[in-house]
Specification:
It contains eight helices and seven strands, in the order βαβαβααβαβααββα. By secondary structure, it is an alpha/beta fold.
Amino acid sequence: MPRFADNALVLFSGGQDSTTCLAWALARYPHVETIGFSYGQRHAVEMQCRAPIRAALARTHANLGPDHVIDIAAGLAALGATALTSDAPIETGPGGLPTTFVPGRNLLLLTYAAALAWRRGLRRIVGGMCETDFSGYPDCRDDTIKAMQLALNLGMQRRFVLETPLMWLDKQQTWAMAAEFGITDLVIGQTHTCYRGDRVHRHAWGYGCGECPACQLRADGFSRWQAGAAA
């Protein structure tokens, strides 16, 4: 593989957004690798979803390359628990941020991803961050991503491009993008978004408790997408 060619590394959690981003990258770049993170997430079941999703996409995309998994659970645990890394209530916390916010998570993930991309010779780093449906997480904002791109390029002396194809899309539009790439059934049946890690209850939009903010966002987007598709 040419060093630092226009190939991609996708932050791939096994969720709806990252799966859609993976399909987006596979349609654009000649070689695409994935990176996943175990960080003590409450919905760790998402990590088990990754392999079946990759296997399904590999059947139609010969450009899907290796997967990489990095365990950073101990480091994040040392910084304190949140509702995404413990059984704490999912609610609005101090300062108006949801208790599911993990301080510095996306900054750390992007740094690890860039370090791996540096070694693997990958220029494009693709993430599912979104400012439209972002639950108030400051590390999902476009300004944050632009600042991270500058910092990573300065600190690693490279010309990485941080790609966020969902940045200005809402969940209805994300469902529409999945349909465009022909992965709607894959998203419904295999991806995981529920903060509570529920893989028992199956809905029209996929698995989940149906009550947490992630489920509600996904369900609402699915309903609006279906209504728009039927119109």
